Amino acid sequence: MISESDLVEDIKKKDHAAFKKLVDQYQEMVLNTCYGFVHDVDDAKDLTQEVFIKIYDSIHKFRGDAKLSTWIYRISVNKSLNFIRADKKAKTTDLEALSHSSDLKLRVHHESEQEDIDLEQEQRSRILFKAVDSLNENQRIAFSLNKLDDISYNEIGEIMNISLPAVESLIHRAKLNLQKKLIKYYKKNLN
Amino acid sequence: MKKQNKMKCKEVHKLITPFLNGSMDVKKSELFHSHLTECSSCEKLVKELSATLSILDKQKRVLPDPFMHTRILQEIENRQSTSVLLSVMRILQPIMVAAILVIGIYLGIGLGNSYVSKGEEIASADNRTLVDEFLFNEMDYEPIEIFLIDK
Q1: Residue B3 predicted with pLDDT over 90
Q2: Which chain B residues touch A180 with a CB distance below 8 Å?
Q3: Claim to verify: residue A106 and residue A190 sit in the same structural domain
């Protein structure tokens, strides 16, 4: 099995076989990181492609101070956030504004019970993701990374370049703020 | 006494967060649950919140695309071709601008020279200089005085 440093050296020499190994090894990680931010599979795939192109073009800048996975996570987070900022101008992100939209009113269909359940789940997902999207940027990054199975608080700290207590604080505040936003939304829209 | 042991809706709303986080003490938890059995509004609120937040735990894992590597390499090649074309354009552009300037200047000089040559032909035919003929001689416009000059 090839070591991380050897893999990096081969990619620096533009070895396509080595680059393919990198893609195979990290694609799922990048894809799910981006998906955690953009909540859309097609956008996540496009972003994944952009992340790996960036890696290919910038591999000469990787000095080996941090783990390769940490560096890749950073690129994934930055690409996702840039995408969201560019997309934000076109879409409504305010949960309050959305509460007036008929799209989010829980509707009941009489065609099938499963359709009702699926529709309710879909609407709840939209409400939840809008609430997550409205968090402060650092809280959002820490919270989204925390949702990924294979990442520790320590690694989140390395990715965000902050201390472990700072990560814990961000995640705790993100959860509290998320609950507050949802409580406020449901108090207003359920009755 | 019984009233003091019952929670009001406002207090329940404040305790939703510790309830969801499982950080409520036993006594408060009992009062909280007791209120939910009596208040359908608060029960519905807590139920919706729990259902929405539970989506975070069930978030799907996106599976990798087996053709991702091929797509990436194709895109890299496309961008490199575009980049080469742009580099060539960056070099060619100033050269083309300079060439257009040189051609323009050459044409201008050529046109000017042909104008001067025509003047010299006319002057040599009448043994008069170009200066006499075109710059200071206005007799073409006043022909009646020509005979006075010739004399």
Answers
A1: no
A2: 17
A3: yes
Indicate the pTM of the whole model. 0.72
Our CA-based measurement puts residue A49 at a distance from the nearest CA of chain B, in whole angstroms, of 6
Helix (H) or strand (E) holding B46: helix B40-54
- B72 CA: distance to closest CA in chain A (Å): 6
**Is there a contact between A175 and A117 (Cβ–Cβ < 8 Å)?**
no
A156-165 contact pairs (CB < 8 A, 24+):
A158/A66, A158/A67, A158/A70, A159/A70, A159/A73, A159/A74, A159/A77
How many distinct structural domains can be found in chain B?
A: 2
Who has greater pLDDT, B82 or A170?
A170
CB A142 within 8 A of CB A175: no
Residues of chain B positioned with their CB less than 8 A from the CB of A28: 61-64
> Is the CB of residue B73 less than 8 Å away from at least one CB of chain A?
yes
Residue B4 has pLDDT above 60, yes or no: no
Is A134 in the same domain as A168? yes
Q: Do B68 and A45 touch (CB under 8 A)?
A: yes
Domain ranges, residue B44: 3-54
CA-angle at A117, arms to A116 and A118, nearest 5°: 95
Sign of the torsion angle spanned by Cα atoms A148, A150, A156, A160: negative
Residues A133-146 pLDDT 10s: 999 999 999 999 99
Chain-chain contact of A182 with B61 (C-beta, under 8 angstroms): no
User: Is a pLDDT exceeding 90 seen at residue A68?
Assistant: yes
Residue B30 inside a domain? The answer is yes
Subunit contact A52:B53, Cβ cutoff 8 A: no
